[in-house]
Amino acid sequence: MAEPPAPRRWQPSPLIRWSLALHGASAAAFALSPAKWPLAAGVLVLNHALLSTVGMLPRSRWLGPNLTRLPAPEAHQGHVALTFDDGPDPEVTPRVLELLATRGATASFFAIGRRADRHPELITEIVQSGHRVENHTYHHAYTFAFRSPWALGRDIDRAQQSLTRLSGRQPAYLRAPAGIRNPWLDMVLSRRGLRLASWTRRGFDAVVGDPERVTRRLLNGLSAGDILLLHDGAAARTPQGGPVVLDVLPQILDALEANGLKSIHLPDNNRTNIGAQATASSSPNP
After folding, report:
1. Low-confidence ranges of the chain (pLDDT < 70)
2. H or E stretch covering 179
3. Is 85 assigned a catalytic role?
4. Quick one: which of 131, 95, 137, 98 has its CA closest to 116?
5. What pLDDT is attached to residue 202?
6. Would you call the peptide bond into 58 cis, given omega within 30 degrees of 0 as the criterion?
7. Cα–Cα distance for residue pair 116/190, rounded to 1 Å
8. For residue 168, what are the CA distances in angstroms to 1, 5, 101, 124, 187?
9. Spatial contact of 174 and 134, defined as CB atoms under 8 Å apart
10. Confidence at residue 272, expressed as pLDDT on a 0 to 100 scale
């Protein structure tokens, strides 16, 4: 069993450090010349607009470390990571597990805490099949990126507690709902030893009902080290009414086999190089 993630020191990204300095300079300028408050306010509005825009780019590292590809050792071995979001789902998740088992493929399931509590037997099945369960927040609220550090922490902690209890292992990674985040998320994750994980490519299988379009998006330029995003929960439906992922996944597995690639779950985060070295922290968790 992997060791539980250890807290690490938060190291603000250059953009966040620059933004904090800008806020300090604006406050000082206002104190020295209150009449220039419109200029100071305008600068801060532009800064917040930039931070908001960057937070809507799921693969960006401007707000902190972000795993978008597998580390070099896994890539050199021809590994690709399959990841599934928004489950567990009583209809789709067992069938995804069956398809993975036919090829000996392993994957990471970013589970929503409240759905895991509703279907604990599926978390057990995921783990017993050799896969990993990771944190996709408890509520999967689309307001997640607009919350305070304390509210982020509460939602993440509740999912962490449920998923640890049900899977027997503490998740090592978090994936934000829709990949959208705010500047404080990495600070919250660092104090919990969690790492942010996004993806190399996704097929939009939660919104696109055409399996061929989804498959093309996922396989276009596929190479070792890629992290692929699919959905076992909230899956879009084909015109025939079936979950898209169940039509897409066999084609993905065929392509991996044809290219000599192997699907794995995300590596233990103490082996990834996506941010600061994990260190103990005694500061209170927001």
Report:
1. 1-4, 30, 36, 269-286
2. none
3. yes
4. 137
5. 96
6. no
7. 24
8. 9, 14, 21, 9, 26
9. yes
10. 53
Catalytic-labelled residue, pool 85, 86, 89, 205: 85
The C-alpha atoms of residue 175 and residue 160 are separated, in whole angstroms, by: 12
Eight-state DSSP code of residue 178? G
Q: Tokens 């399931």 identify what position? A: 109
Whole-angstrom distance, CA of residue 276 vs CA of residue 6: 12
First to last CA, the chain: 28
Q: What is the pTM of this model?
A: 0.89
CATH architecture assignment, domain 72-271: Alpha-Beta Barrel (3.20)
207 Cβ contact partners less than 8 Å away, ≥ 6 residues apart: 236
- Reported as type and span, the H/E element at residue 54 is helix 37-55
Q: Take residue 23 and report the two structure tokens written for it.
A: 């806020």
SS3 174: strand
State the sign of the Cα–Cα–Cα–Cα dihedral 81, 86, 90, 91. Answer: negative
Closest to 132 in 3D by CA, of 178, 158, 168 = 168
Q: Where are the domains of the chain?
A: 14-55, 72-271
231 is catalytic: yes
CA distance 93 to 109: 10
Active-site residue, selected from the candidate residues 79, 131, 140, 231: 231
Residues across the chain = 286
